[in-house]
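Two proteins, back to back. First:
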Amino acid sequence: MNRTLALASFHSVSTISNWSVTLATAPRLSPPFLSIQLRRPSLFHLTPISHYTKKLSAVLAMDSSKACSVKELPVGLDEATEEEYASQSKLLQEFTSISSIDKAWIFKSDSGIGSQAMFSISQPNLLANKKRKFMLSSSISKESINNVNFQWAPFPIEMTGVSLFAPSPSGSKLLVIRNPENESPSQFEIWSSSQLEKEFMISQSVHGSVYADGWFEGISWNSDESLIAYVAEEPSPSKPSFDDQGYRKGAIKDKECSSWKAQGDWEEEWGECYAGKRQPALFVINVNSGKVEAVKGIAKSLSVGQVVWAPQVEGTEQYLVFVGWSADPRKLGIKYCYNRPCALYAVKAPLYKSEAAEFDLKSTEESTVVNLTQSISSAFFPQFSPDGKFLMFLSAKASVDSGAHSATDSLQRIDWPTGGKLCSSTKIIDVIPIVNCAEDGHLPGLYCSSFLSKPWLSDGCTMILSSYWHSCEVILSVNVISGKVLRISPADSDFSWNVLTLDGDNVIAVCSSPIDVPQIKYGCLVDKANNSTGWRWLNVSSPIFRCSEKVMSLLSSHQFSILQIPVKDVSDCLTKGAAKPFEAIFVSSKKNDGTDPLIVMLHGGPHSVSLSSFSKSSAFLSSIGYSLLIVNYRGSLGFGEEALQSLPGKIGSQDVNDVLTAIDYVIEKGLANPSKITVLGGSHGGFLTTHLIGQAPDKFVAAAVRNPVCNLSSMVGITDIPDWCYVESYGSNGKSIYTEAPSAEHLTHLYNKSPISHISKVLK
């Protein structure tokens, strides 16, 4: 076969989601050029494959009687090619400029008729390698059962320099937080509907930056909107100072030439994006006085996050509920790793009392921290019911107990004590248990990445949330008393649906597909009076996702489907769930006759999932002439716990065979040309990509990888997730045999599981 493979290998201390660089060219692959740009080079440690093969070239030439050598390739670009690249670059910019909705809030209008919506929107700023964030508001009026009207503000407002914002429960106030880029104070602003009401500068001696990471992050207003609890970096500890005479007492200025500061005690971090960040700690600010108080009594070994106020019980002390992650025995990487044990805790909040309309925070001297979830290994995303009777939370106990970095969630309930007396032996009730293997058409399990800030319908016991259902994201209603779960987004839709916010008992959501830009939908119960379970979804005209006519024309010329791929060797499956078909999303031109080049796209994790939602990068690739095969191999989220747990211990074999089976499936159906197939993946997807070109080098004309795991025996000694290497390589036994000092036998096993063990086949 006439082909050339260019492959760059990047090794990171953990998995990350940002695409990095590879360049793959193949003379027989048309369009002839695929390039993915490195946007954040500082996040990666470059380890070329040549490190292992003692060759300095990253270009691997495949044997072929017709192949051109690298030297014979033209150095310059002809005019036609240059114009083609310029055209594709412009088209890529048109795709990337499409905005995304990050969050939304609903407030009742002052007139009591209709409501006001506020949308937090982001748009890539490619030149600055950042995201522009802005707000857009709309007035909502439901004119009839079949018609809803959104009146959009004429222009959005850019939120320059804003790290976080959180509306108060009533919607009358808005907290805006601006984190400093240096040692300056954090800026807290309290806005009313028309003006800035309060502004406070919180010194670094009080706390560092407020956490805005989506995980430790937590901001919660109390019921009367006088106090806000939040999570911020603990203040920097004092560091010893020295000059030419030795140790120096007292503070010194950083710019004193004759003096210098030591770094102080080394402290562990939670890996990856938390490098350089101090321990997350809990604080409360009085919005009237600006006084900040650290919450006392929390052990230094606990990293805190996701704080909420417990219901106020008259005559009792006020409590805060938060998630705590223990540093015992040590901190490992936490990004995308739900297997880190955590629990819900309650602690007495700093108190206030009213004296001539003056509010004053008073810290509790002896605060007792109560572990509310001692009987379960994982608890996060605490959410109280509107009447304060229930405390709901998610649990990743399947992940913690098995060691898999992500697995099937469960939804749990605690009945909150009416008298305010807390107990560590509180009964925990399974509302949605872990689903091992569901019957066709039934809930495959709960896979929920977050809760809404207000997820409740007016009955006070029904939550609305989004979850993965095979290759789609769907919207569910959950009765937290009976445990009844309903899929309220259309069951006959292969689109992905994500809930944004609730407007009373109506749902505002977005739906999209690989070939359809996101569309806002407004969901209403068909017959609420008679307790109907059917939902009607209305289209909402919106300026948010507008794109060029060229982009819309290209997308309209494509089609997609979700393929059911039978497992080849069912006899090797130890569980029923592992023997069930897996899925792949196939995107192609409507005129596809099997001649278009095919890109096989592989997600990372491995316990993640590729959804049937709109992806700007994937849509761009399909628009320039590629068909896409997006494989959700066994081990992906959304298919039940048995299918997921079938992969640990079999990486590099079961997942590789699933991908090859999916490729053979589309070839047999006449959807792909076997001589025009390339493969692309990042992190564990890069692990799979490099395995595939090693185990089946004749199958692919090109490969592109981002941040691949190429050598587990090397990775285990430098990564912040060494336990991942053991669990995925050894399976359920990996958690118990994990050690920070791998034996020669362990290193050999890890090497044999790695793509690098197949490098000789690629070089032939």
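And the second protein:
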Amino acid sequence: MTRRSCAIYATGIVCAHLLIVGIALVVAQVFQTMIHSRLKKEITLTEKSQVFEGWKNPPPPVYMEYYFFNVTNPEVFLAGGKAAVKQIGPYTYREYRPRENVTFLENGTKIYALNPKTFVFVPEKSAGDPEVDIIRTVNIPFVAVMNELNSYSFFLRTVVSMYMNSLGIEVFMTRTVHEVLWGFKDPLLTKIHSMKPEVDEHFGLMWKKNGTHEGEFVFHTGEENYMDFGKIDTWNGLRKMSWWSSNQSNMINGTDGAVFHPLINRNELLYIFAADLCRSIHLAYVKDVEVKGIQAYRFAPPSDVLMSPKNNPTNAGFCVPAGDCLGTGVLKVSVCREGAPIVVSFPHFYQADPKYINAVDGLSPNKEEHETYLDLQPTTGVPIRACKRAQLNIILKRIQGFPKTKHINETIFPIMFVNETATIDDDSASQMRTMLLIVTLASNFPLLIVGMGVILLFVLVVLFCRNRQKKTAKDDTAYTQVSDKPDEPSETQATQPMRNGSYIAMSPVEAQKC
């Protein structure tokens, strides 16, 4: 056997083995199963890894952008006209949210943690100075007192109204952004505090929220089931709430939005418990996106999250008392926040009933600026970009006994909205790209084997064809050319008699006589 034949046989044997093994691995999905099993087993909070450290101290910077609606025509609104507002901002703060008092429970299957939040003003990302800029907005303490007295007698409401007039308290107030946001000593609350010490004399939208936490959380670590990774087990010792009017609405579902289980698919709904909204919300897949070279799935709250119970009966549980429902796009949360009739929505009443948008001039909702979304890396379940947007509103309406409100048309009045954003930092993005490359190569290793087998098959065909060509050429050179014309006789041939015919690679033989 020649060396060329040995090479052909060896190539054929290796090619056959690679194709058989590669196709078998692809069909059985051995490597994909191994990778997925590894992810399910090791991406848990109990692993001493970057995932755990990243969960305790999230590396991406989180920014809180506050936008306020400055009221430009309070007199017109109080006289029964339509209010007009102008958006100002943003006033941006860097948010720090480390996990503290982290304690493992029940053999590492659960973990206890506090999540205090601290805010630091970032002037270079802000539109102005919050301690200088003045805004005119609804006097929320005034509305809270009116709302609290609504169930009392007309006589008492009238007396309180006269007293507030003597203090010069109006429906709208003018304060600095810093005061409205972080608090000031309110004259009305100060008077109430002198009679009821449990009432705080200060008011601010973020009063006592700088450096504090939203409650005590216990999370699942995913040790028992990777699908439970990061899910909330209890909040302030509760597995369900009691504010709403149905068991489904009172459920505490999902994670706190910081992490999700690995191996996310496009068809599932993701749940987040939002303590500031006093409820859980779900997010659905929207589209594929790319963030800093990392492929991700975008999830966002669908329109049915805040849809009217008329169109989405499952939301009837958020009507308190039962049957007292608002329209699409708004949620009354005063049930869990005592005092003023607070309503939350998406910014500029995005996805809300047009009647709320048209009730106030100066609103222009759009998806790009006002949608809440999460961009998740599906293999790890890690958020690589997040944008949480929510608007704070208050219900203004006529209340008998308070003459200042006698011409007001009931309105869900916008106060401010917040845009909470976070994007993965460059170092973390580089590490994730490297990790995902390794996972991709490992998962696709059987395809590489099949590819090598196909290449060797091509080489085998080329070698086989060339070998056939050389054999054919060798067989052709075993014969001499047949001449069509007689050669000139040489001196030797001259002495021999001429014979008819030609010869082929053999000495002439004497013709036998009959």
